[in-house]
Amino acid sequence: MSRLRILGEFASTRWLRPLRSRAAVERRQRRLLRRHLDFLRRRSPYFRDLIPRGADDLGSLPLMDKAIMMARFDELNTVGVRRDEALNLALASERSRDFSADIDGCSVGLSSGTSGHRGLFLVSAAERDAWAGYMLARTLPRGRILGHRIALFLRAGNTLYGSVASRAVSFSYFDVFADRAANLQRLARFAPTILVAPPSVLLAIAREVERGAVSVRPEKVYAVAEVLEIADGRRIAAALGQRMIHQLYQCTEGFLAHTCEHGTLHLNEDGIVIEREPLGDGRFVPIVTDLRRRAQPIVRYRLGDVLRARVDACPCGSALAALERIEGREGDTLLLPGRDGGTVDVFADLVSRTMLYADGVSEYRVVQVDRARLEVQLRVADDAREDAVRADVAAELASLADRLGAVRPELGFAPYAPDDGRKLRRVERRWRGDGNAEL
């Protein structure tokens, strides 16, 4: 690992690459894209015949997804790593919870995302350094960059994440599968200035802080890996003494977005290209090309998340495109029967916002289990009556269906059942639309 590479990337991102206009952003993207396509044509067997000499646009290249990435792993990567070897190492690391092993200097890991389908990622040492410098530039508070203690809660560790450690910034990895009480004790001793964790973990920490079991007061808190719901963000912020909860849109496919000091999510367009597959009303599915990732190229990767573009300009003045919010997985859009006989798409964010109006809800999950049936899992606040909360939730969901022109769904209520073994999804569709339910 090169400290100079990390420092160089940090300085470039923080101070030397302001990109104050859209024209500057697009010039940088074009320059990086030409260089990247030329590299892939020469070094990736998969892209060798797909990219003509001198290519400078993505239009002719096919879309990619997790299934293609896994099936063509050996041809796609440019470092000669074989899928079976990488997969065996990643599985062994998951079982042992020791993520220090590399293959030829490349970090290897598994990702299931929220879809549950296994993916494999590969990152070179140079890419780790660039990621570390870029991540620090985007996350460290303005004004002070030295002496920070970063606590990072992850489902799987990796040398990619450990690369941010230095004498200037100390770093501690917390395994979310480890004993929660032991994690909390170690977190209190570490006293992080920056806390990074999935919303489900942040909620668990917030609950312990609320009842006085642990004291944690970081300068900044970042939510990662799961959709941050509005109500959850408010509760976490109040418990941890934050003005807002920041977000890092980081996944196997790259570091895609970060929040500025005004709390607006900005796409990291100084290193990626995002094509937009429109869904209407400002929503879109991102198609990602990482312009600097070479060991395992991410080119026109259809991510399957639902993002919503911000209409007005962010007060921070950044030329990077802004998002209103990350709404969830495309596959978790509820498909309810319409009153006209068709099907009505109910985006997860609409359901989450509707639940904000129901009084007395402490935790919830809304799951579509059949064409016209939703299971609503609830944990009610201590001072609320469960029957009254259920009635309020039913009324709000009925009102949402009416506004959208959908048939009011049948509701089944159940106790809230957290699952620490998978990512938190407040809104989920298990009914596939073909008469079957996902298991």
Automatic annotation (TrEMBL):
Its EC number is 6.2.1.30. GO terms for molecular function: phenylacetate-CoA ligase activity. Gene3D superfamilies: N-terminal domain of ligase-like (3.40.50.12780). The keyword Ligase applies. SUPFAM superfamilies: Acetyl-CoA synthetase-like (SSF56801). Keywords: Ligase. It comes from the Bacteria. This is Phenylacetate-coenzyme A ligase. It comes from Microbacterium azadirachtae.
